[in-house]
Specification:
Blueprint: E1 12-24, E2 26-35, E3 40-47, E4 53-59, E5 67-77, E6 80-90, H1 91-96, H2 103-112, E7 115-116, E8 126-133, E9 147-157, E10 166-177, E11 195-207
Antiparallel strand pairs: 1-11, 2-10, 3-4, 4-8, 5-6, 5-9, 7-8, 9-10
Length: 208
């Protein structure tokens, strides 16, 4: 948003720019959980009225090297879902490299801000939780357009010689991304965001 601008010969040109920072542009609409009692005593997922995620995990067995995480993001198209991308990661290695840059590590750092979760292997038996978790703007790829999405996170161990997976836990989240107009922020019109939490002003002076 631009404020007063003045200019005359021999005087200063001053531009005041106010930046509006979007706080969030997504909401969770559903959560479901599946887990193996071999590894987990219980897992409870629930959504707040604001569409944020609360999660309680009771891990009753140590998770060691060999644990893998398969993450798939799908978009709702017609009556079904179309896969946008899918990753299959070495969980312990990924946790050990969190400071390096990649989309999956950006997402993990986003998650860790909202709860008490393990950051290294081996992952010890304990109670872990998330509180009021939401997707930060910086963790959402810019190419994702408004729509309905499904994120599936499956944690498992491979069985030798092509055997079936040993499931630890699967989390499925339905997500709504959307535009939201902000009528008191002219002249930009609709912006990609649902709330505007902070504003900052920057001044620039030029000598004419």
């Amino acid at each position: 948003m631009w404020h007063a601008t003045t200019f005359s010969a021999g005087r200063r040109l001053q531009l005041n720019l106010t930046l509006y920072v979007a706080d969030s542009c997504s909401t969770f609409t559903n959560v479901s959980v599946e887990y193996s009692p071999e590894f987990c005593g219980s897992i409870r997922g629930r959504l707040t009225p604001q569409g944020n995620l609360n999660l309680d995990i009771h891990l009753n067995r140590t998770l060691r090297q060999g644990l893998r995480t398969a993450i798939t993001l799908q978009q709702r198209v017609g009556g079904g879902y179309q896969t946008l991308f899918s990753y299959d990661l070495d969980t312990c290695r990924t946790l050990g490299e969190l400071l390096q840059s990649s989309l999956m590590k950006v997402w993990l750092r986003n998650v860790f801000r909202y709860g008490h979760l393990p950051t290294r292997c081996p992952i010890q038996p304990a109670l872990y939780d998330l509180r009021d978790f939401r997707l930060e703007n910086y963790s959402i790829p810019g190419y994702l357009r408004p729509g309905l999405f499904r994120l599936n996170d499956t944690n498992y161990y491979r069985r030798p010689r092509g055997g079936r997976r040993r499931l630890v836990a699967t989390f499925t989240l339905d997500i709504k991304l959307y535009y939201n107009g902000k009528p008191d922020v002219p002249p930009f019109g609709p912006l990609f965001g649902c709330t505007f939490a902070s504003r900052s002003a920057t001044s620039l002076e030029l000598i004419a």
